[in-house]
Amino acid sequence: MKVLVTGGLGYIGSHTCVELLQENNEVVVLDNLSNAKVEVKDKIKQITNKDIKFYLGDMIDEELLDKIFTEEKIDAVIDFAAYKAVGESVQKPIEYYTNNVSTVLVLLKQMKKHNVKRIVFSSSATVYGDPEHVPIKETDKTGNTTNPYGTSKLFVEQILKDLYKSDNTWDIAILRYFNPIGAHPSGLIGEAPNGIPANLMPYIAKVASGELECLSVFGNDYPTKDGTGVRDYIHVVDLAKGHIKALDKLQKEKSGLYIYNLGTGTGYSVLDLVTTFEKVNNVKVNYKIVERRPGDIAECFADPTKAKEELNWQATLSIEDMCRDAYHFIIKNKK
Ligand code: NAD
Ligand code: UFG
Q1: Helix, strand or coil for residue 69?
Q2: Quick one: which of 66, 156, 82 has its CA closest to 116?
Q3: Closest ligand to Cα 128
């Protein structure tokens, strides 16, 4: 298959490109490099010994998309291109809705024009808001998102549902990721946030490497086993493989709209992650307990049964693998 991967040089996109190439697909990437470095393209080649075709540009650019679909005979699209910082989205709602929703409309319009009706979309567990219970199933209530980032994902899910209703020859998979962490075991690609990381794992890794002084643990008075927040951390390589399985499913079914949780089904607390990281990497992670972070929820983890049954996919890598690979990437790429 020839797959257009939008945002393909980013964190999850780059790992998915590796898996696509290793499964002998052709890969075309569109990325505006707003949150990625062009060198990632060479790293992907180093890992796979295969080339991707790269278009530098913005998904809002309709002429460029028209050109890509005209030149490339694309069979399917995986759409990763979006902004993803929850806190920033509260400050910049216009930018977030433009980049996370308007661009998707441009993409879908051009897909329709060129009769490419197969798409895998990156959604997020954030669409469940503060879940009524855990583990979360795909049929559980969505909504009550607390920030424009989460709402943008909810809007795109609705757009895709409406599109499918209007024309049931579309072939759509909505993947709701839980908390992707870790890196490719080669240490060549991984999560490289600019500045101070907003997410837990890159923060822990930078404290361990000495780049940052101390982790702030946001609250230890949640109703969880040790009082700290519990999440479903999933290795990014497992997550990437989930996209290949979703594409297989779409190809097999020819049309339909499918929604899957991609998580491990196990929740780990902030302190679980800290202690596992210390043990696996034989390093110290200094931390202090501070106030809760506004907007955080106590617990969030998936029921991944549907993905197992329908996609024949399940996460295989452990929390130890996630901690080891995340640190390996940080150390290998330390400036
Ligand atoms: P990322 O920022 O590393 O990757 C996004 C990529 O898209 C970047 O390479 C960026 O340069 C590119 N991009 C952004 N806007 C673009 C545009 N308008 N045109 C072209 N390229 C554009 O983020 P990621 O962690 O790899 O996330 C990928 C997708 O998964 C996003 O849609 C994100 O919302 C979703 N997601 C991520 C997480 C997470 O924790 N990382 C969780 C749930 C969902
Ligand atoms: N945390 C800390 N200290 C930090 C950072 C985080 O204690 O410096 C805690 C949080 O309070 C939370 C846990 O670590 O309990 C995980 O926080 P992250 O920021 O790593 O992840 P979130 O679960 O808040 O959100 C992430 C992505 C969202 C995505 C969501 C989906 O940032 O984009 O997962 O589950 F929508």
Answers
A1: helix
A2: 66
A3: 2
- Backbone φ and ψ of 16, nearest 5°: -70, -35
Residue 252's contacts (CB-CB under 8 Å, 6 or more residues apart) are none
Is the CB of residue 13 less than 8 Å from the CB of residue 80? yes
Distance 329 CA to ligand 2 centre (A): 20
Calculate the CA dihedral of residues 85, 152, 175, 262 and round it to 10 degrees. 40
Q: How many angstroms separate the alpha carbon of residue 227 from the centre of ligand 2?
A: 15
86 CB within 6 A, ligand 2? yes
Beta-carbon neighbour count of residue 109 at 10 Å?
Answer: 13
Give the ligand at the shortest distance from the Cα of 96. 1
Q: State pLDDT tens for residues 72-122.
A: 999 999 999 999 999 999 999 999 999 999 999 999 999 999 999 999 999
Tell me which DSSP letter residue 126 carries: G
pTM over 0.90: yes
Cα of 3 from ligand 1 centre, angstroms: 17
Rounded CA separation 179/329 (Å) = 18
Burial class (CB in 10 A: 0-12, 13-18, 19+), 212: middle
